[in-house]
C-alpha cells in the first residue's frame, strides 16, 4: 500500500512539473477583481460625462457633431478614459502575476508566457485595428460589441497556455459581444458587464479555486 501511494505521489509530481512547464499558472484572481472594478468605473465616468441615465438609449448619437462626424472633445475624453483603464489594468495584471509567480517559485517570463501573450495579442491587435475602421466609417455603436468579441477570441486563443477557466470567460465574452451587436443601444452596459462584472466573478472564482 505504501509503495502504491509513493507511485501515485510520483505521478502527481510528474504531472505538476509538466503542467508548470506547459501552462502559465501565475494569473491572479485578485487582479481580475481589480480590473473589473476599473472597467465599471470607466463606464460610470462615461455616463457622467455624457449626462446619461443608466438605461438611456442611443448614447452613440451624443458622440457625433451636427455634420455626422465625431466630436473631438468627446472622443478625446473617451480615449483618455479607456486608455487610462487599459494602462491601469495592464499594470495591475503584470504586477499581480509577478507577485504570484515569485510566491510560488515559478518563472515570471518564460517560453510559455511568451506563447500565451503572443496568442492573446494577435486577436487584440486585429480587434483594435477593426475598431479604428469602425470609427473611420462612423459605426460608433458597433465598437463596444467588437471589443467584447475580439477580447473573447483572444482569451480562447490564449487559454491553451494557461488555466482552463480562461476558456469559459472567453466563451462568455464572445456570447456577450454577439448579444450586444443586436442591442447596440445598451453597448456601454454590455461592455461594463463583460469587462467589469464577468472579470470580478472570474477573479473571485480563480482566487477561491487556486489561491485560497
What's the number of helices? Answer: 7
H and E order: HHHHHHH
The global form is elongated
Mean pLDDT, rounded to whole units? 82
Could you list the spans in which at least 5 consecutive residues all have pLDDT below 50? 13-22
Query: How many runs of DSSP E, i.e. beta strands?
Result: 0
Tell me the helix content.
over 70%
How is the main sheet built?
none
Over all CA atoms, what is the radius of gyration? 20 Å
Distance between the termini: 31 Å
Structural classification: mainly alpha
Strand content: under 5%
Could you walk me through the main structural features you see in this protein, from its secondary elements to its overall organization?
This protein is an all-alpha fold. 75% of the residues lie in helices and 0% in strands. It is built from 7 helices and no strands. The two termini are 31 Å apart. The model is unreliable at 13-22 (pLDDT under 50).
Give the tags.
212 residues, mainly alpha, elongated
Layout of SSEs?
Layout: H1 2-22, H2 29-50, H3 72-103, H4 111-136, H5 143-158, H6 165-182, H7 187-211
Helix pairs in contact: 2-3, 2-7, 4-5, 5-6, 5-7, 6-7
TL;DR?
Helix content is 75%, strand content 0%. It has 212 residues and is mostly helical.
Amino acid at each position: 500500500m505504501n509503495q502504491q501511494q509513493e507511485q501515485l505521489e510520483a505521478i502527481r509530481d510528474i504531472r505538476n512539473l509538466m503542467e508548470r512547464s506547459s501552462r502559465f499558472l501565475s494569473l491572479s484572481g485578485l487582479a481580475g477583481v481589480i480590473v473589473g472594478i476599473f472597467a465599471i468605473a470607466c463606464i460610470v465616468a462615461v455616463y457622467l460625462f455624457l449626462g446619461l441615465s443608466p438605461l438611456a438609449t442611443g448614447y452613440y448619437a451624443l458622440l457625433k457633431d451636427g455634420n455626422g462626424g465625431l466630436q473631438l472633445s468627446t472622443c478625446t475624453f473617451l480615449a483618455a478614459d479607456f486608455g487610462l483603464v487599459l494602462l491601469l489594468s495592464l499594470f495591475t495584471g503584470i504586477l499581480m502575476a509577478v507577485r504570484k509567480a515569485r510566491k510560488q517559485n515559478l518563472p515570471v517570463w518564460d517560453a510559455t508566457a511568451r506563447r500565451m501573450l503572443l496568442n492573446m495579442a494577435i486577436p487584440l491587435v486585429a480587434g483594435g485595428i477593426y475598431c479604428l475602421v469602425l470609427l473611420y466609417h462612423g459605426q460608433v455603436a458597433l465598437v463596444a460589441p467588437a471589443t467584447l468579441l475580439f477580447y473573447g477570441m483572444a482569451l480562447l486563443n490564449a487559454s491553451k497556455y494557461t488555466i482552463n477557466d480562461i476558456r469559459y470567460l472567453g466563451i462568455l465574452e464572445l456570447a456577450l459581444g454577439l448579444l450586444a451587436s443586436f442591442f447596440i443601444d445598451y453597448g456601454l452596459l454590455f461592455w461594463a458587464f463583460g469587462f467589469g462584472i464577468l472579470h470580478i466573478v472570474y477573479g473571485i472564482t480563480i482566487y477561491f479555486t487556486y489561491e485560497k
